[in-house]
Amino acid sequence: MGFDGAARGRxxxxxxxxxxxxxxxxxxxxxxxxxxxxxPDDVGRFQFDTEIxxxxxxxxGEALRQNQLEQLLVHETAAGDGGLTKPYLGSLPDAYVxxxxxxxxxxxxxLKGGYKRTMDALRYxxxxxxxxxxxxxxxxxxxxxxxxxxxxxxxYDVDDHHLSLVYIARLASMT
Length: 175
Fold this sequence. Notes:
Blueprint: H1 5-13, H2 23-27, H3 59-78, H4 96-127, H5 133-144, H6 158-173
Helix pairs in contact: 3-6, 4-5, 4-6
């Protein structure tokens, strides 16, 4: 492959480790091994194929959204043949894992939207029957434990509500 028979024969006649002695080999300067950035021997340097502004954005958000929807499907399938019925969360599970999940969820909501928006979101989740009035009241009681003012809050977007629905589905699967 790529060698003719004569070249292979000459190669075998040479002692092992000896370089070929032809004109081209003598005229080339000896190769210097440079391990700095940009050298031919540098294999650890990463370079993007496209410019930063040309790269598509939102892949992480799309992956997160897809993962959330898959989790919802798993929880709905695990709920049995009857599927889930509204309200999805009729009571908070009485387990340490569930309590930890509630704190993680509320912490996410408070850090993203602040205390008032979190209260409004819980009221909204009750309105759309994701949780009962009793669960809403319990979650609001948990919120009292969150102290301090959060700066730089933003409004919730669709992905934030999807994530809340995932939290609700996880809690519902524990009851």
